[in-house]
Design goal:
Layout lengths: L1 E2 L1 H29 L4 H34 L14 H11 L3 H27 L2 E5 L6 H7 L4 E2 L20 E5 L5 E2 L4 H10 L4 H11 L1 H18 L3 E2 L1 H7 L7 E3 L9 H13 L4 E3 L13 E3 L2 E7 L5 H12 L4 E7 L7 H14 L4 E8 L2 E9 L1
Parallel strand pairs: 1-5, 7-8, 10-11, 11-12
Antiparallel strand pairs: 2-3, 2-4, 6-13, 8-9, 9-10, 12-13
Helix pairs in contact: 1-2, 1-4, 2-3, 2-4, 3-4, 5-6, 11-12
Length: 382
């Protein structure tokens, strides 16, 4: 029996969509919430790993059962493997949370592993053979694994109860068979072994040869990725998010010790507006008075925020530059309040975007208020 190339590709692509989607959702969460709250990150990452890992395991069960039926193998229905537990996910998050791409990849890898675990654990139970089948642009390490051909699943197949060598950004998958007459179309372990032997078993040499062969394609992909990152690097409109997540009247307003209310009427007014319209705990802060000390006007939802009452479109530049310095240690954002002044909102936004792009480092939300109404909200990370 020969598994058609299209049928195998469809199976691989369905699995790939699951682990890619989980990684995308993790990346979107980080974009919205950052990586400061390790517990919240672990909770969300674990929820993704469970949801999409269960989907990956179910697909692997379906393929396993289909192969058993086609081969006439008298085996029990495939049992799905358990996705990674909370502890393992939390450790992965703690190890990678300061590098969002690695954290995203960690989530994708654990989702992918659930499918691989399912295939191998059932093969181990039934004494089936397995093979690592390359798909797409295959790395030299995966080619080396694929060169080992079909092997019977045994006690050493799994390590610590899990499939080995599973990594993100990889579409290679395990195939199983119940007799030697079964194969996957296009799977050629002898060809992969010849490539491995030609490099004298040196995977790094294979990597260098692969790069030389695909240099133009790889560089074109890098240029496209850079252009895409650059296009995404501008400020993001998050007004709808602020309005959707608003909890008017919830939370409390507190004052720092020795806070001088008579000198901070505008800050107090803005804090009350935030509480009434968006909600959340707010603490108004007293300046330390130190020459080089930077203190934001208040903490809102645990982050530093600075208020700037602004008069013209152009004045947004200097106001924002000053505000970003004040919140540098614990950046939440800056509020530009135009009061009842008539200004061109589009022109204000253009000034704000140019200022953000010029900042050497900036992770902040910018809220623009006019006539006590939230007119715009931008988020920028650099």
């Amino acid at each position: 029996m020969r598994i058609p190339e299209k049928a195998w590709a469809d199976y691989v692509e369905r699995l790939s969509r699951l682990n890619e989607r989980a990684g995308q959702l993790m990346a979107q969460y980080i974009e919205r919430h950052g990586t400061g709250d390790a517990a919240a990150l672990a909770d969300y990452a674990h929820a993704l790993v469970v949801k999409y890992g269960e989907g990956s395991a179910e697909l692997a069960c379906q393929m396993y059962d289909a192969m058993a039926k086609a081969a006439g193998a008298a085996v029990a229905p495939a049992a799905p493997a358990e996705p990674a537990g909370y502890g393992e996910v939390a450790r992965m998050v703690e190890a990678t949370r300061h590098s969002p791409p690695l954290l995203r990849g960690g989530v994708s890898r654990l989702v992918k592993r659930a499918g691989a675990d399912t295939t191998l654990k059932n093969a181990q139970r039934d004494g089936a053979e397995f093979a690592w089948v390359p798909h797409g642009d295959t790395c030299p390490f995966c080619l080396m694994l694929a060169s080992r051909g079909w092997r019977r699943a045994g006690k050493k197949t799994l390590q610590g109860g899990h499939a080995r060598h599973i990594h993100a950004n990889c579409d290679c998958e395990y195939a199983i068979r119940f007799n030697s007459n079964t194969n996957v179309a296009g799977y050629d372990p002898e060809k992969y072994l010849a490539q491995y032997n030609a490099a004298n078993g040196d995977i790094n040499a294979m990597r260098r040869a692969q790069y030389a062969q695909n240099k133009e394609k790889i560089n074109a992909q890098k240029r496209a990725a850079y252009a895409a990152r650059k296009a995404r690097s501008g400020p993001v409109d998050v007004l709808e998010e602020y309005l959707r997540t608003a909890k008017p009247g919830q939370g409390s307003i507190a004052y720092d010790k020795n806070y001088n209310r008579s000198k901070h009427t505008e800050e107090i007014k803005t804090a009350q507006w935030l509480h009434d319209h968006l909600g959340g705990d707010i603490e108004l802060l007293q300046e330390t008075g130190g020459l080089f000390e930077k203190t934001p006007d208040f903490l809102w939802r645990g982050k530093g925020w600075e208020l700037k009452t602004t008069t013209t479109e152009k004045s947004a530049d200097s106001a924002l530059r000053s505000a970003l310095k004040q919140i540098y240690e614990n950046p939440g954002g800056a509020i530009l309040d135009y009061g009842d002044r008539d200004v061109d909102l589009k022109a204000v936004l253009d000034v704000v975007k140019r200022r953000l792009l010029r900042q050497e480092q900036c992770n902040a939300d910018i809220l623009i208020i006019q006539r006590e109404e939230l007119k715009a909200a931008l988020r920028y990370k650099k």
